[in-house]
Design goal:
Helix content is 31%, strand content 16%. With 233 residues, it is of the alpha/beta class. The chain starts with a strand and ends in a 9-residue tail after the last helix.
Length: 233
């Protein structure tokens, strides 16, 4: 099974998000054949199948991700089933790629940010399916033919847009499972190393956003994955 990581040029850590994501994959994710990266290419990146591709929009990050995944799904070299991962996601425990479960985090979340409006727009568009929020922020398995079908008819490049996981999985999954507490840890605010370690000690995945990527988070990531991977010059 292949692994796909869409990339932008908006790293806040000199592309080290990707560096450590790949170290975690090499250390803990079994059964990966080809690693595909698409979008911006860091100067140190090697041994992935990389495709340079610009951004579809200037303001809609989800649309840019969907466009990159759509592009690669039309490439014959990509495996039929593949894992889509973000560069701000880390694999903490050993597991087989083919056995990653798909979990949702409920019926949705309220909020006033652009992303929350995008999520609500997605759930509203799929209201006839009694949708769930699958934007759980950890690596998930996709099928490339199903993905192409799932986005057909959705003008994802227009605002507010759609969130990729919820748009896809609500259309293809029959059985729905709620994310177990502690399966993945998502850091959304600055925390100390001890705080991060305490809440992530049993997690398979450690994920974060820009707000959670403080110096303590960087130090902890560097400590967990100190050794260069085969994807680095």
């Amino acid at each position: 099974m292949d692994l796909l990581i869409p990339l932008s040029n908006k790293s806040t850590w000199s592309d080290n998000e990707l560096r450590y994501a790949l170290r975690s994959v090499e250390s803990n994710l079994q059964g990966i054949d080809t690693v595909w990266t698409i979008g911006h290419k860091p100067e140190w990146l090697i041994n992935t199948t990389h495709i340079l591709l610009g951004e579809a929009t200037k303001t809609n990050s989800d649309a840019n991700i969907i466009a990159k995944v759509e592009y690669l799904c039309k490439q014959p070299g990509l495996s039929d089933n593949f894992i889509r991962m973000s560069d701000d996601q880390l694999v903490l425990k050993f597991l087989k790629a083919s056995e990653i479960p798909i979990y949702h985090v409920g019926k949705g979340k309220s909020g006033s940010t652009t992303w929350y409006k995008r999520l609500q727009n997605t759930l509203k568009a799929l209201d006839h399916l009694d949708p769930r929020n699958y934007d759980s922020h950890y690596p998930m398995i996709y099928n490339k033919k199903d993905f192409i079908k799932s986005i057909k008819g959705f003008k994802y490049w227009t605002n507010p847009g759609y969130t990729i996981n919820s748009l896809y999985f609500n259309q293809v999954l029959v059985e729905r499972k709620r994310l177990p507490i502690g399966y993945r840890t998502h850091i959304r605010k600055p925390l100390s190393i001890k705080e991060i370690e305490a809440i992530s000690q049993d997690s398979y995945f450690l994920c974060y956003n820009d707000s959670g990527l403080n110096e303590s988070m960087k130090m902890l990531i560097e400590c967990i994955f100190p050794n260069p991977s085969g994807f680095e010059k």
